[in-house]
Amino acid sequence: MRRSKGKRRDRPVTPVDPAKSAKRRRFRVHVVYSLVFLSFTSLLLRLGYVQVVKGASFRSSEQLTQYARVPILPQRGWIYDANGQVLAWDKPVLTIQFNRYTSMSTAEMHRVASILAPVLQTTPQALYQAMQSNPGALQVTLAQNVTDAQVAYVVEHQSELPNIQVVQDYARQYPYGDLAGQVLGYVGAITAQNVSQYKGYLYSQQVGETGIEYEYEHLLQGKPGYELVTITSNGTAVGSVGEIAPQNGDNIQLTLDGHEQAVAQELLQNMIDSSQTNKQDITDAAAVMLNVKTGGVIAMVSYPYLDPNWYTNGTYVDHVHYLETSGAQLNNVIDTFNYPGSTVKPANMIAALKAGVVTPKTEILDDGYIYIGTQRKNEDEGFVFGWVNPIEAITVSSDVFFYELGLHLGKWFGSSTTSGGSYPASDGSYQNYLDTDFVKGINAMFQEEENFGLGTLTGIDLPFEEHGEFYIEDYRKGNIQVPYNLQASEASLAKTGKYVNYGSPASLADAAIGQSQMFTPMELGVYAMTLADEGLRLKPHLLENVYAPNGTPNSGAKPILTYKTQVLGRVSAEPWQWDLVKQGMYGVTSNPAGTAYYAFLGAPYQAAGKTGTAQIVINGHRTDNSVFICYAPLNHPLVAVAVMAPGGGYGASFSAILARKMIDAYFDEHHEPWMPKSQWTNTSIPSNWMQSPAYLLPEQSH
């Protein structure tokens, strides 16, 4: 038979002997059993060796080895200004801390202090005092920026140093000191009083106490991590088992312009220092600039100034006298309120125009004073303006015109240089007049002012904001001013048609010129912004963007959150009414008879403003609260400004000048075409800020 190429030829099949096959299978099974037996025997012998020969050693090692969970603190988010300049940042440091998780006797504390003091290069007594300091805190920092040798000693002698631990920490730093100090705020330790507020935090974490640090704690504060370290019985760290990395805080960017802020603080400081007649009276002052289009805060100045570093670098005690006596811890833009003076006149003019008690053709004779009942109300400084129309009344700030405006809103007629006037006979009793027409009149002004954001919280994203108050004179108490509850009066009028009160018609006149209400500078800033936007009231804010921990305004990263402009309300008025008020406010800065004419003389842009001067008492003597509001440019507003300086004198002689210089600086920085190119500046915070008079604080604070 021929073979086929490429194929194997079949072979014959050989029969298999069943007996031999079974024998071979039994042999293989015996081999497998033998191997298994030998393996178990070896394992048992090894186990016996471990139990008998090495058991004691291993049991001792197991009992003496411990694991320590060392916290790794997150880096707090950085704070940037509108131009990407760092205003607050975290510097990594290692610290040695004393914790109060468990109690420790005085004797034990002295013992620990005596062991640790030489390592930290201090005395046992000083260290003991440090351990006793800040009794409300659950952790006390004993040393910062510690060396590797100091860290090693604490770790290796942990059994001798109960309640002492090494923590990777961060030192909060504010590179420009007092620049926007009250706005930024500062951080501090978690205390026994606020620990419930910070669930899930490590006791060693620093938390925001004031300002932006407090307001945006939930963004700035990351989440801690841990490192698991093996510790032997003698306290020696023999290695890290692993770690859970911390999650750093988000970075935030503010609307605050660091350059404009620096210029404004320096301008205010220089004006106070150069004021010979008012310097001793000006114990506090405030200024705010807002973006008319968005409500963003461009600058927020609160005098006296404060350096947040004092609270984080251990130098607080060196400045405690200054802080406790100056009031620098307050943000006067949002925390303090005072009489606004004539700055309220534009809002009250809107109220009167809407009520029909004033028309564009109204003219009132200003002879310098009128009588209201038996009270004589004088024009400021004895001015006599003659016949005044609504536009002129705002421009020259005629008090008599606005006295009449307020009285007519409250239906008190006939006041003049010879008569005190009276209420309508149809009201019956004087008390019924107060409870009806008087209330309706004063509410017409107060409610319109509140519509503009006055006397109410603005909602600014800062903690501890205060709101202003409304007042009336109480005839039962000798015509002294008492708080007036606008909301309660409105509710009562709506329900019963009256609101029982014991006011005086003179309060109508006082309210019309800003002497029966107190507002914060922030409220006045929102008011100015609302005038600029013809009734659109925006919520003021400082937050602009939020970035992930690895993103910054300068890295090209996309924000994870951007603030959206919020509308809080609208003041309804006719276009011609807005135009009338606008003309009056423009006259303030452009008409030679305007109260702020000289402050804005030569300005290359047009501005609308209103001065305010209110009589107050400081240090036991009478002086003036200097107030000014404005917006610019006139027809396409970009910024609104409010300044308040108790003791500063006339609104035109202090606050208006400061506002003008602040606006100039902002337009110079943004290279507006109407500003001379020779004056254009950049957005950088001045490199010589540390030599600025505004940084070299009073009382030798630095």
From TrEMBL:
Keywords: Cell membrane, Cell shape, Cell wall biogenesis/degradation, Membrane, Peptidoglycan synthesis, Transmembrane, Transmembrane helix. GO terms for biological process: cell wall organization; peptidoglycan biosynthetic process; regulation of cell shape. SUPFAM superfamilies: beta-lactamase/transpeptidase-like, Penicillin binding protein dimerisation domain. The chain crosses the membrane at residues 30-49. Residues 286-663 form the Penicillin-binding protein transpeptidase domain. GO terms for cellular component: plasma membrane. Its main location: membrane. It is a single-pass membrane protein. GO terms for molecular function: penicillin binding; peptidoglycan L,D-transpeptidase activity. Residues 72-238 form the Penicillin-binding protein dimerisation domain. It is found in: Cell membrane; Membrane. Belongs to the transpeptidase family. This is Penicillin-binding protein 2.
